[in-house]
Amino acid sequence: MVEQAVSKTKLKKGDTVMIIAGRERGKTGKVLSLNLTEGKLTVEKLNIIKRHTKPSQRNRQGGILEREAPLVLSNVMLYCGNCQKPVRIGIKALEDGRRARICKKCKEVIE
Q1: 81-94 burial string, b = 16+ CB within 10 Å, else e?
Q2: Cα(78)–Cα(43) distance, integer angstroms
Q3: What span, in angstroms and rounded, lies between the C-alpha atoms of 70 and 46?
């Protein structure tokens, strides 16, 4: 089964997201990076994996390194600070002509 890549998303780097599926379900964190071609994102201090590395020219120390592994985009939702819940996102035109993302539950602008 081949999974299709996500062409666009309403999430961006620096957003606070909540994980809604998997072993880290219910935890929140900040988005560190997005990879839309693979449909994945990395969340700060969540989905930690351990990598056993040999000493090399780049990594002189070697040993067991801990780092964040990517999560599938469908397993996270944007976290609204007002609602204190994961929410869906809408787009609304502001008076000054700019477009802003809004929370579908409380209708507040998400920064």
Answers
A1: eeeeebbebeeeee
A2: 12
A3: 9
Query: Count of residues for the chain?
Result: 111
Domain boundaries of the chain, sorted by first residue: 16-81
Q: Does domain 16-81 have CATH number 2.30.30.30?
A: yes
User: Residues 89, 104: contact at Cβ < 8 Å?
Assistant: yes
* 71-96 pLDDT per residue, tens: 999 999 999 999 999 999 999 999 99
In whole angstroms, what separates CA 14 from the centre of its chain?
8
The pLDDT value recorded for residue 64 is: 94
pTM, full prediction: 0.85
